[in-house]
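Regression test case RT-17, inverse folding.

Input:
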């Protein structure tokens, strides 16, 4: 109720919104009114001509109300509105969401639950994440580009591809990542980024997997691996800083511990895959060298750190074929995941790409992939190839961590998971 809070005491204001709570005492009806900006108490006296209309109003009814701004220490926010006019715009049917509703039920009625103060706060933080990400890339001289969602070849391995019915064609899928298209675009624009959904037919039912997630991806010509990590930590620090600056109230409502976020400043920690493996083995995880980390491993690992940590130098087999092998140690790649602290785990995957055509062809073969599927991607190494790097950031995961949520479905208004595509 920002408009309301700016009004001088004693002035008359008009508000529009929804009934958040209503209770009648002998002489008064107390309505907590909700709009996009917050809540405010409205008081209707029994002497007013619209008393019975106000008395009959139901939760989530939409109303117009005029009134005088008064101080009242008992009201939320310390102010209230003494109604001078009251109009019901639409009387709501009994609202299905009541205290103690189960998590599953709240997901069934997600189209209504997004009105809750908690979801309202998360969505405002999410907006700030998206807004500041665009701002960051613009300031850095990146161009925003768009890639297709219908594609014909896997970026991140065939197991998590969604095949679609594309007229009478076989082998058409929803994209897992816009990376290859961004790689093509750097030869024209050098530094590009995109924000788009990516799709993964993930069988894993974890707290951090969606089948449709929002992916911010960037690709830069000439960038070395070192420059890539510096860009990533700068981006994440910028976003966290903007949220802290502009969305304090929302973080407070979410009971987020902000001291942990205030710590998010470059440089982030950097540990090698081998070091990570060592830490994990001390914690009782029996991983063989070469295996990728899952949610449990990343959770254990990041509980050790008070700010984000890069794990770099993943073994060749643990990462997709396009990653460049480290010339100094060919069994590992110039790749890095950025893990969010407090147990959250991976929010970014990125690395330096293979720029040499022979190296790429060899890797495609080694990974048992069909060369013909990647012809246009290979072409990029035929015509003026350059060293280049890039990354993909999961915006739902980033929002989840910044808000301190315990499940990714609460970081996006209408989540898509293995079991849920409604509403
Ligand atoms: O698979 S990634 O690690 N990497 C890529 O897709 C690269 N092709 C990106 C690039 O370099 N342009 O995914 C990147 C990030 C990952 O760190 C997560 O934060 C997020 O995308 N991600 C997901 N978020 C939510 N749900 C699912 N299923 C998911 N998969 C990845």
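Golden output:
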């Amino acid at each position: 109720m920002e408009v309301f809070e700016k009004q001088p005491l004693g002035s008359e204001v008009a508000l529009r919104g929804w009934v958040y709570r209503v209770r009648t005492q002998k002489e008064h009806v107390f309505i907590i009114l909700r709009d996009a900006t917050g809540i405010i108490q409205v008081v209707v006296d029994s002497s007013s001509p619209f008393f019975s209309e106000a008395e009959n109003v139901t939760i989530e009814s939409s109303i117009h109300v005029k009134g005088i701004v008064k101080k009242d220490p008992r009201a939320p926010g310390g102010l209230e509105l003494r109604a001078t006019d009251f109009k019901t715009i639409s009387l709501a049917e009994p609202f299905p969401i009541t205290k103690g509703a189960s998590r599953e039920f709240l997901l069934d009625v997600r189209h209504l639950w997004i009105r809750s103060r908690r979801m309202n706060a998360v969505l405002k933080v999410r907006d700030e994440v998206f807004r500041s990400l665009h701002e960051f890339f613009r300031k850095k001289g990146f161009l925003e580009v768009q890639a297709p969602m219908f594609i014909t070849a896997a970026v991140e391995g065939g197991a998590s591809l969604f095949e679609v019915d594309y007229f009478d064609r076989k082998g058409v899928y929803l994209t897992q990542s816009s990376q290859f298209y961004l790689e093509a675009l750097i030869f024209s624009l050098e530094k590009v980024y995109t924000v788009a959904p990516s799709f993964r037919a993930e069988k894993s039912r974890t707290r951090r997997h969606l089948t449709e997630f929002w992916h911010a991806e960037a690709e830069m010509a000439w960038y070395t691996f070192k420059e890539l990590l510096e860009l990533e930590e700068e981006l994440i620090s910028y976003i966290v800083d903007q949220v802290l600056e502009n969305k304090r109230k929302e973080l407070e409502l979410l009971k987020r511990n902000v001291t942990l976020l205030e710590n998010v400043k470059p440089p982030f920690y950097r540990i090698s895959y081998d070091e990570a493996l060592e830490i994990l083995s001390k914690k009782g995880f029996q991983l063989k060298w070469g295996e990728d980390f899952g949610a449990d491993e990343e959770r254990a690992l990041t509980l050790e750190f008070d700010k984000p940590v890069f794990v770099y130098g993943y073994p060749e087999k643990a990462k997709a074929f396009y990653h460049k092998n480290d010339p100094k140690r060919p069994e590992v790649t110039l790749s890095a995941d950025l893990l969010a602290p407090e147990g959250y785990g991976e929010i970014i995957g990125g690395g330096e790409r293979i720029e040499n055509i022979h190296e790429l062809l060899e890797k495609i073969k080694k990974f048992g992939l069909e060369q013909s599927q990647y012809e246009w991607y290979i072409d990029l190494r035929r015509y003026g190839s350059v060293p280049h790097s890039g990354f993909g950031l999961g915006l739902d995961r980033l929002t989840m961590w910044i808000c301190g949520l315990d499940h990714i479905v609460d970081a996006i208004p209408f989540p898509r998971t293995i079991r849920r595509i409604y509403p």
